[in-house]
Amino acid sequence: MRKSLVALVALSLASSALAAPPPPTLEAQADHALAEDRLAWDFVEGITTEVGPRQAGTEADRRGREWAVAWLKRHGFAKVADEPFEMQTWVPGDLHRAEVLSPFAQHLVVAPLGGSASTGPDGITAEVVKFETVDNLRAAPAGSLAGKIAYISHAMTPTQDGSQYGFAGPARWVGAGIAASKGALATVIKSVGTDWHRNPHTGGTAFPEGVAPIPAGALSLPDAANLERMFARAGDRPVTMKLTLTPRDLGTTTGGNVVGEITGRDPSLPPVLLACHLDSWWLGTGAFDDGAGCAIAAAAALNANMSGQPLRTIRVLFAGAEETGLWGSKAYAAAHAGEPIAVALESDFGADRIWRFDSNFREDNPDLHARIARAVARFGVSNGTEVATGGADINIARDQKTAIIDLQQDGTRYFDLHHTPDDTLDKIDPAQLRQNVAVWTQVAGILANEPGPIKPKE
Amino acid sequence: MRKSLVALVALSLASSALAAPPPPTLEAQADHALAEDRLAWDFVEGITTEVGPRQAGTEADRRGREWAVAWLKRHGFAKVADEPFEMQTWVPGDLHRAEVLSPFAQHLVVAPLGGSASTGPDGITAEVVKFETVDNLRAAPAGSLAGKIAYISHAMTPTQDGSQYGFAGPARWVGAGIAASKGALATVIKSVGTDWHRNPHTGGTAFPEGVAPIPAGALSLPDAANLERMFARAGDRPVTMKLTLTPRDLGTTTGGNVVGEITGRDPSLPPVLLACHLDSWWLGTGAFDDGAGCAIAAAAALNANMSGQPLRTIRVLFAGAEETGLWGSKAYAAAHAGEPIAVALESDFGADRIWRFDSNFREDNPDLHARIARAVARFGVSNGTEVATGGADINIARDQKTAIIDLQQDGTRYFDLHHTPDDTLDKIDPAQLRQNVAVWTQVAGILANEPGPIKPKE
User: Fold this and answer.
1) Residues pairing with A275 in the sheet
2) What is the pTM (predicted TM-score) of this model?
3) Cα-based distances in Å from B355 to B246, B377, B379, B386
4) Residue A346 near residue A339 (C-beta atoms within 8 A)
5) Which ranges of A289-429 would DSSP assign to H, the alpha helix?
6) Residues 6+ apart with CB under 8 A from B127
7) Co-location of B268 and B359 in the same domain
8) Cα-flanking dihedrals φ and ψ of residue A97, to 5°?
9) Quick one: what percent of chain A has pLDDT higher than 70?
10) What is the band of A457 on the pLDDT scale with cuts at 50, 70, 90?
């Protein structure tokens, strides 16, 4: 017994002296990521510290892309590039003030919504008309808001799956456009968010064809609540506000998608696409939204490669200008339309733990779906039955009707931070970030070593 | 048995038909406050909504006093007055920017400290020198900071008793003065606070006699952490910052202390003084600091009176200009020096639950101390052995060496909110506010009905 053990050790030592040690298994590499991955943290710490906010189409956005290109090259990615595209660029400007003048005088914290028009530096002063919901605003008679500022409220509570965004979001997405179509001078909304800090939540707002944009701002939740209390205490007295927002349209500027690859053993096979977006709103440093997503995608690609060169190429896409209109996602889909991809995943919902795996090939390729589900179960990820549809940055996958995987993250605190000044590095829990990297490593590694089609029927 | 019960009820009904029903006992009134007091909430909701920030010595401060006078009169207080005093007034101005220029370019969230000088609207640009602690700054050679901006860090964690303020506070209290004495152009500190939001914590900073004030700002904790990471990533490269802070000294203006009384049955007895401060820093709406304190004091005085007119007068003191130099407390102590008070209490540590009762007459008047301790035990308040010293607004009690009671509040989240934009109504937990009112009602009622001296030996 003893002798044979010694012989075995000797044999093992001899063979490791003769050849390089074998790479860790994919499972071991994913477990290692869970315990001590530092790649993702290095990426998100680096870009939030050395670049910070990356408002799409601006100089800071360009610096962010340059930074990401350097990071990918430094970590050994191939074919690293900043692929340019043309975009329409909106910037927030410097003056963001909302001052209630009567019946009570007090400043409220406000930020412009993406796409907002300017009030000019002198601001506008008008009576505020309150709407509890977008539906109430929709019901207001045509022309009834002439000369008024429309205030739009809503109710939103945190949910693990982020589903309340669908209910509360329209206050931001379409509220200003509806108010403008009824003659409003401007709109302020209760931020679409769930935190109680002096954080305005910005985000894009859209104006219908033929409706000229008006100034549109978001109040932080404490400020919106204060304004609503003012209405309650005002009785019949009008509530008047001076609103000053000075965003500007810069016209056409150049944005870019940053890409890089882990080259597969058979580069002729369609690649695995791991996506995120690199731009952020100007208020925060783009940690949760979406520096973390790019960090997870890049770390997973590197980790998968560390368990042996994958069969398929793994491509990372750090999309540009997602926040201001999916300019990067659309440009990538157009530029690469003729290059089939095997499967796409996107990380753009913060950095909290992944709790569910969904695919769009559960029925077409049940063996692969089940294999992935079993492989990620040890990280606390359940096998979902939803049909994955992917996020904003993987238009190309939907265009190509190819395989898509959604690795659902816990969104309970996502809308505390979404599009606010508070989207900063300290909000990222290193342990949960590593769980994301572990799951992505496992999934990317399985996909990149799958010889057959991921979604056979398409 | 049944007959005698009927007779008893009949007797009780008859006596209540003959005379007004007796007032509730003090205990019943305090229990009622715990369950459903609305007076304190009405006060703090009202002043934060109808006035908002009340920077000492400004027009908003004047409106705050006017509002408080009206509230006290409306609720039946006697001798309501706004007692004026002269003060030196500092205002924050409009431009508050900190922009790191190199080696990484990014804006940081900053607010001026009270007493800060102005950089002028064009700002100043200089290299930043980092100090981990005030002691490290103290150790810097004379003149070594010439032409530099000193950054001062510290470590602070939340504590129930707020004791960490004593360790971390000097970074704000004296850091700028020390830096100025060594030639620094300006100072930025890590906010003296415990939250991780983009909240700068302002507060007064003092410059030594003969040292000219320099511009002094506080970075939010996420921004301070970001700046520290920049230092770590900068290596040998200097970190340069453009700092723009435009506060102004307005010279001498008029502030005021708002007072009011529940007149006792024997107004010749020294009164019970319930204090708080009415002013707030400009950033928040002065809910936790210290609208809640005035709400608690006023509600307790009214509640105590509802259990029968007290023997002694209960006076409330809403001190003015506490934040910018205790102007109101000093003015009150000087103006009323000749009027003995029996005992003083102050509420100025937020609105979370009271957990300990301390007095400075535990040895001189053990029976009364024990009686109060027993009476508040049912609200979860323990009997403390510290010697109460009171807060900033009751200088008069220390001057008179009279009785003082400290009703210690849970300060675990106090320094998340202290002197920040986040000091808003939504941070007040109505149930904990009511517990404060209940305890204060009980204590004020006992004290106001005590015929003998509260602190006999003085």
Assistant:
1) A317, A346
2) 0.94
3) 41, 9, 9, 13
4) no
5) 292-306, 327-335, 366-377, 395-399, 414-417
6) B147, B148, B149, B238, B239, B240
7) yes
8) -135, 140
9) 96
10) low
- Examine the fold and report which residue of B224, B246, B268 is the final residue of a domain before the chain moves on: B246
Beta bridge partners of B100: B106, B241
Judged by DSSP in three states, B356 sits in: strand
For residue A350, CA distances in Å to A113, A161, A287, A354 come to 21, 12, 8, 10
B286 and B430, same domain (yes or no): yes
Of residues B49, B104, B197, nearest to A229 (C-beta): B49
Provide the number of structural domains found in chain A: 2
Beta pairing partners, A100: A106, A241
In a domain, B18, yes or no: no
Q: Which domain holds residue B159?
A: 93-246
Residues B325, B386: contact at Cβ < 8 Å?
Answer: no
Q: Is residue A251 a contact partner of residue A292, using CB atoms and an 8 Å limit?
A: no
Distance from CA of A426 to the nearest CA of B (A): 7
Kindly state whether residue B292 falls inside one of the protein's structural domains.
Answer: yes
Q: Quick count: other Cβ atoms within 10 Å of Cβ B373?
A: 18
Which two tokens mark A346? 């996107």
What distance in Å separates the CA atoms of residue A147 and residue A124, rounded to the nearest whole number?
Answer: 10
Using the structure block, give the residue that is written with the tokens 């560390």: A306
Give CA separation, B250 vs A197, B61, B253, B323, in Å: 31, 14, 7, 16
Average predicted confidence (pLDDT) for chain A: 95
Tell me the CA distances in angstroms from A378 to A141, A157, A381, one per residue in order.
57, 30, 7
**If you search the block for the tokens 């695995």, which residue do you land on?**
A272
| Rounded CA separation A3/A14 (Å) | 16
- The interface pTM score, or ipTM, of the predicted complex is 0.94
Residue B134 and residue B208 in one domain: yes
| Residues on chain A bordering chain B, Cβ-to-Cβ distance under 8 angstroms | 45-46, 48-53, 60, 63, 104-107, 109, 196-199, 221-222, 225-226, 229-230, 233, 285, 421-422, 424-427
Per-residue model confidence as pLDDT tens digits over A158-174: 999 999 999 999 999 99
Chain A: give the shortest CA distance to residue B9, in Å: 45
